[in-house]
Amino acid sequence: MRRHVWVGTVLTALVTGTALGITPVRADSQGEPRSATKGVGWKPCPDTPAVECGSVTVPIDWSRPDGPAIEIALARRKATDPSARIGSILINPGGPGASGVADVQADGIGGSFSAGVRRRFDVVGFDPRGVGRSHLIRCRPTTLRPSDVLPTTAEQFRRLRELNRAYGDGCRKLSGPLVGFVDNKSVIRDMDAIRAALGERELTYYGNSYGTLMGQQYAQMFPHRVRAMVLDSTMDHSQATTWSFLRSEAKAVQESFDQYVAWCRRSTDCALHGKDVRRVFAELYARAERGKLIDPRTTMKISLIELLLDTQYAFLGPYWKSLSEDQAKLLASKPEPAVTAPSKQVSEKPVEDPATPIFCQDWRVPVRNVDEVQAYRRKLAQVAPDMKLPAQAWASTMTCVGWPDRARNPQEPLRWKGVPPVLMLNSRYDPVTPYEWAQNVARQPSAVLLTYDGWGHGVYSMDSGCVTAATERYLIDLRTPARGAHCPAIKPPPGR
């Protein structure tokens, strides 16, 4: 998962789905596109010649393998020692909506792999359908405001529902039928087509955050095609109800806040060191709720949901030092804006937003009316007495209210059978993929959870020698750590 991207403008230009360049594709007797088994046809990427780019053809609707098709974009950095090469490792950085192609080109997650892994594996990133270069989904903006996801009246809830429906309809009008087929189960079939195109009998995969859902469901659908799988910061798609989803996320952000408070208490790097940090945040929360919280840099009001999003985003790093400095400045800011912000001209540009359609097709988290909104907020405030609610999970849930397409891939229990050992990584204090989610997924008989006893999201990027060594040993030799293994926390850099 990632920070929610707000949509608040109006589009007047009209673009149709014909821009997708959709073509038919044939399938072989095993249901894989014939073009996938012919290879990728790698060429140097125009903007990054050191990296190779290619694509695989897949059907938009996998139940109609001979129907209209799209190209899934790929990027590859080849193994540094061809003589020692084991194969390809497919990666996805999450999101939903993050680009694996851009990640490989920038040497992101792939660049974090140890020299031993890069020596033996081609690192291949892909853009899931609707993302990046795989026919990026564009939507027609609406007048949705950040505050709209916290409706307090029936009329405000009705407005939210209508705006979300209009936004979804605009996505389909601009991006065509692909918008209805960006669910994760379609993506994992694409992943299997990529595996075939790479010439791999079995898949080696690293998925971060939302990319772990791709890995989990791939293993469930294609258990005998898994060689190795690293699931870093784990989604739990068995959170069956709106309440269980929101409750678990609220618990995680509150625990992350508690860790931040403890750091401020002991560290002079905290700009609020010596102050009651809980009381400071309560004051900022109250100001935002009254419409009196002002950004001193812009003199603009900061809404309540924006305050929560920014605060909880800082737990991802964690970026405690920056958070404390920002909160100190907000606390000292004037209660009223110094100037009136000029009205902005409405943008006519389409919004690039694969995240919303993907989430709303993968999660059925209904909120039926404003009474339920208020009931959830009261209950969540009991779970998270300082944070009150998990901002990202809440915003994602509320942007699906009224969404015009059904959830094609709603939550279900994860059941692995015949899956080889899978390595899971998770921080003890992760604000968006809670530790309890990882514990739930780790109940699968072949899953081994390595706990990083620290903070933040994306364990492999934490520069932990313990995590790096365990991951390299697993990817190369297929040896997992002992069950219940832990890696010690690393103190966040002072600049964070």
Write up what this structure looks like:
The protein has 496 residues and is an alpha/beta fold. The protein has two domains: 215 residues, Alpha/Beta hydrolase fold, catalytic domain (Rossmann fold, 3-Layer(aba) Sandwich), CATH 3.40.50; 211 residues, no CATH class. The chain is 35% helix and 15% strand. The protein has 15 helices and 13 strands. The strands form two sheets. Strands 1, 2, 3, 4, 5, 6, 8, 9, 11, 12 and 13 form an eleven-stranded mixed β-sheet that branches. It has a two-stranded antiparallel ribbon with strand order 7-10. A hairpin with an 8-residue loop joins strand 3 and strand 4. Helix 5 crosses helix 6, helix 7 runs parallel beside helix 12 and helix 8 crosses helix 10. It is globular. 52% of the residues are buried.
Salient structural properties:
two-stranded antiparallel ribbon, 13 strands, alpha/beta, 496 residues, disordered N terminus, Rossmann fold, AB_hydrolase_fold, 15% strand, 15 helices, Serine_prot/Carboxylest_S33, hydrolase activity, signal
How do the strands and helices of this protein lay out in sequence?
Layout: E1 23-24, E2 43-45, E3 48-59, E4 68-77, E5 87-92, H1 100-105, H2 109-112, H3 115-120, E6 121-126, E7 138-139, H4 154-175, H5 184-197, E8 203-208, H6 210-221, E9 226-232, H7 242-266, H8 277-290, H9 304-313, H10 320-332, E10 351-352, H11 355-362, H12 370-383, H13 391-398, E11 422-429, H14 435-441, E12 447-455, H15 465-477, E13 486-488
Parallel strand pairs: 5-6, 5-8, 8-9, 9-11, 11-12, 12-13
Antiparallel strand pairs: 1-4, 2-3, 3-4, 4-6, 7-10
Helix pairs in contact: 5-6, 7-12, 8-10
